[in-house]
Amino acid sequence: MSEWWKTAVVYQVYPRSFADSDGDGIGDLPGITARLDHLAALGVDVLWLSPIYPSPQDDAGYDISDYRDVDPTFGSLADLDRLLAELHARGMKLVMDLVVNHTSDEHPWFAESRSGRAMAKRDWYWWRPPRAGMRAGDPGAEPTNWRSAFSGPAWELDPATGEYYLHIFSRKQPDLNWESPEVREAVYAMMRWWLDRGVDGFRMDVVNFISKDPALPDGHGAGGAFVTGSEHYICGPRIHEFLAEMHREVFAGRDGLLTVGEMPGVTVDEARLFTDPARAELDMVFQFEHVELDQGATKWELRPLRLTDLKASLARWQAGLADVGWNSLYWGNHDQPRAVSRYADDGEHRVRAAKMLATVLHMHRGTPYVYQGEELGMTNAPFAGVEDFRDIESLNHYAEAVAAGEDPEHVLASLRAMGRDNARTPMQWDASEHAGFTTGTPWLAVNPNHVEINAEAARADPGSVFHHYRRLIELRHTLPVVAHGDFTMLLAHDERVYAFTRRLGDIELLVLGNFSGEPVVAELPEPERWRAAELLVGEPADEPLMLRPWEGRVLRA
Ligand code: GLC
């Protein structure tokens, strides 16, 4: 069973937006269970379930108030057990989201911690007095100059005890203090409880943030302003120690699991350490480099993507984890805009473009992740005004930027391009009023293009994006070169063509993707060799090295 995930494909379900069984407008567990045939038809091996735990839903469930239960909005533990059994019956696995950098401020651990400076759980979180020489509540009295990822300072004053607590995300997401052995033991016990229940692993939310420099120094380069301070908590001093300990305490001696750590800001060198099997920390990590190439200092500063940057980045990750470690591969998830809108063409060439992105991604070495709706070529949503958004990150940014004097239209344009709600519009099952997602009023508006882009239509059309994903997943299962072959990037300086080869023994694949709206010829060395090759994926073409707008292709030598 070891390293079974090298030939696997993971499908991410964002429960709020997948399928609503009870008409309250919010997706739920019975809704997912009722749709498992969609996943089985696609052929995926694993379902990664974003959080379903009890939560005040300040950050859509990434703020957890009880780690061992299910939020009534999503169902019950019995519903979870049923989903798990139905997945296992179809030969699929279930990976849960593990959010332990922080809890909700409504978690009983935090309630106890905040209730007094002498409480036993006080040090389960990061409490600090105001900055030396300042009074609690004064502007700038926060213990450090760190900014929250969701705007504003990363510290909130608790008037009852006169101290501040750290929250890298919203003020309703206080950071746990992993320096406390009791915190770690409580987390490990909870993880074992889920594994004993039968789940098959964890996707670990911002897990490279759990070790902070305990001195909590100011962030660099502030000049009086708030800065991320992330150099003091991204892959902090004890991160490898903590993950190795977690492995010993939770995973050792259990088989067939998958662990993937979400790691903003992780480097290739760090990722090699995290995923080196000999070190027994994690199976793979989500890195962010390739999804940050089209932005400036923050995600809201848009800049055009250069294909050569994308190729250079992904080639470095392929090479860096070639002999040790393993990559995870993704274009999208619940935090990213829709890939076809962001990287390609969601208009005239949408179908071909969505297939091309899939071809390029799935033919890399690593484990591919499909985000719900990506297999239909779902697009960004036509948000009219700020009132159409629901996500705390977008709403806080809008309020802060507009208050600081930015042009509201300009801010809206960046929300439309980068906002996380693009990924969170309801799954498009059919052409009916709410896309078959709910019989009630959806919590976030359905994209009007569901009349054309939906699962029912896609499954009926052999030329659809859906059937293309099916084929790519099948290839990973059946052709060893896809999972295990080595990787060589070609045409590093070409701004239009993404090209690489995969090789295992005497089998060689050539993968091509046209990242432009014009026909283009891939100017490869040895064109003759590829002209004689077999077409493995893509539409027949007279000239195998000539690509239509946004077209992808795989050839086998
Ligand atoms: C991760 C999640 C994101 C969440 C954040 C805080 O990045 O993917 O949705 O807002 O962590 O938990």
Write up this protein.
The strands form 4 sheets. Strands 9-8-7-3-2-1-11-10 form an 8-stranded parallel β-sheet. A 5-stranded antiparallel β-sheet has the order 12-13-14-18-16. Strands 4-6-5 form a 3-stranded antiparallel β-sheet, with no helix packed on it. By secondary structure, the chain is α/β, with parallel strands linked by helices. The chain is 29% helix and 14% strand. The longest helix is centred in the middle third of the chain and has 17 residues, at 181-197. The mean pLDDT is 97. The chain has 17 helices and 18 strands. It is globular. Residues 59, 62, 99, 169, 205-206, 262, 334-335 line the site of alpha-D-glucopyranose.
Summed up, the helix count is 17
* Bound ligands: alpha-D-glucopyranose
Beta-strand proportion: 5-15%
The tally of beta strands, per DSSP, is 18
Strand order of the largest sheet: 9-8-7-3-2-1-11-10
Summarize the amount of helix as a percent range: 25-40%
The residue-averaged pLDDT reads 97
**Net shape:** globular
Query: Main beta sheet: strand number and arrangement?
Result: 8 strands, parallel
Low-pLDDT residue intervals, each spanning 5 or more residues: none
Report, as a whole number of angstroms, the end-to-end distance. 31 Å
Q: Structural class given helices, strands, pairing?
A: alpha/beta
Cα radius of gyration in angstroms = 23 Å
